[in-house]
Amino acid sequence: MARDPGSIVGRIAGVGLPSRLPGKRREFSPICLAGLGPDDLPSSAESIVKGTGNAPQVLEVAPKPPSDIEYLQELIAIQQNGPKNIGFFGTRNMGFLHQQLIEILSYAMVLTVRDTGQKKSQRK
Amino acid sequence: MKESSRRSLTGAPSSSSQDNHIFTSGATGTNAAVIRGALRAERPDLLTVVLPQSMEKQPPESQELLKQVQETGAKMIEMPDNDDLTLFEASSICNDDIISRVQQIICFAFHDSKLLLETCAQAKENKKMVTLFYLD
Are residues A74 and A110 in the same domain? Predict the structure, then answer.
């Protein structure tokens, strides 16, 4: 059954998207909810000639990129690779399978012996 | 704050500086699963349970597991001073205490788990590494 992808996307995203750009066909991918691909965006030439007024709008806000400090912290944490004190928090309301997963994670975290530089040198 | 710890009855090797140490609270759900995992690994010396209030204030379903924690020799920290507070307030204090003791946080929450999300935000502010799993 042929359906207009534009209208499906419009309903999903809750906005009225402009109709498909003329002369372009788009395959609707059910995986991509926004349904917007490179074909939906005007080319550089089209932007200059027609303007960007007809360009589709995407409601999703891009996630905030991690700050430099966060990158550095993660790098330091990777380099240290030593034993850690790990705090577990979580909801009381969860299914049995979720609890099993958490139990295995905790079990593994306890049994994981961190490979420190000292141990490496002992092995040599 | 009352700290209790007994020698391991399982004969597990003593905690060395090369092992991860797990901190959690004493509620049902996530906390109970974490405790069961650590006990299953037979390393109670690597588990510390921080309770928001005294042991007697814990729900009956948690008390059984917590008694097991004590019997195995894992460290349990009670906060009887917070018995007069609401569970929300006491839990908030308890979570702060856990954050101050750890370098990394792993949290399992729903998008509307107010206290848990606040705790994670606070941990991030304190420059802790936070891994947050959403169950919804």
Answer: yes
